[in-house]
């Protein structure tokens, strides 16, 4: 009975919302969780028959599975999207998710690298190897432009406008944005293109991909993670670092330097300003910590 609803929801996510395959799968997985719950409760209701109290029971059930508040919130978000689709298609008359509460999240601020730490990590790159030249260009680009790891591995040669200092980035949901790129990143991309990439036999279909592995194929996200992990270790940094840390640090340094939040939103490619607003919290946390560490009146206080 639910297969038709799931099929329709999948088409809505792909066609109307233009979501990536990974996001679509995640949303469908949320609906699978709901139908698992309904089956367990022996009440395989239709979406129109489900009431707020059923969804509250579902949230409780998900919590008892041992999921974190973040995972629970993500599942509830998926259920809300499903009911939005049901409303649009007139499958339901009343949306039961309207009064559904989301578990309160304690926002853990991710580790941030200082500018000196980022420089130290990039300094560990061995420029005597072709891979080193490529990795230097990758890291300079990631920090200069605040790219997601998926955006850097998919960066196209045809999307570089280095003469005017911009790159065109294809982000989540195939949304495009123009991002300014710094002189160091431009310099190392040009070195990579002229001295390294030109000698790589490119696999068919990868001709327009900027960063290639030695076999001429696009790099994987995992590869970027491993490259960074190795350099962080060599730099002697013990923070929990991932490629996203570079993006996070890029945004933090902008906000701490007084950048306009809308401009940061534009550069990061956030659809909603509320996603970017985490950096205002981070900024406040940073200021509070600075006072605690350096102001005589704050020392020793909580």
Quick description:
By secondary structure, this protein is mostly helical.
Walk me through the topology.
Blueprint: H1 2-16, H2 21-40, H3 52-64, H4 69-88, H5 115-123, H6 130-145, H7 149-153, E1 160-161, E2 166-170, E3 176-180, H8 183-196, H9 221-234, H10 243-256, H11 261-268, H12 273-276, H13 278-294
Antiparallel strand pairs: 1-2, 2-3
Helix pairs in contact: 1-2, 2-4, 6-8, 6-10, 10-13
Structure characterization notes:
By secondary structure, this protein is mostly helical. It has two domains: 2-88, DNA polymerase, domain 1 (Orthogonal Bundle); 115-292, hpI Integrase, Chain A. The chain has 13 helices and three strands; from the N terminus they run αααααααβββαααααα. It has helices at residues 2-16, 21-40, 52-64, 69-88, 115-123, 130-145, 149-153, 183-196, 221-234, 243-256, 261-268, 273-276, 278-294, and strands spanning 160-161, 166-170, 176-180. It has a three-stranded antiparallel β-sheet with strand order 1-2-3. A hairpin with a 5-residue loop joins strand 2 (166-170) and strand 3. Helix 10 (243-256) crosses helix 13 (278-294). The longest helix is centred in the N-terminal third of the chain and has 20 residues, at 21-40. It is globular and about 65 Å long. The mean pLDDT is 87.
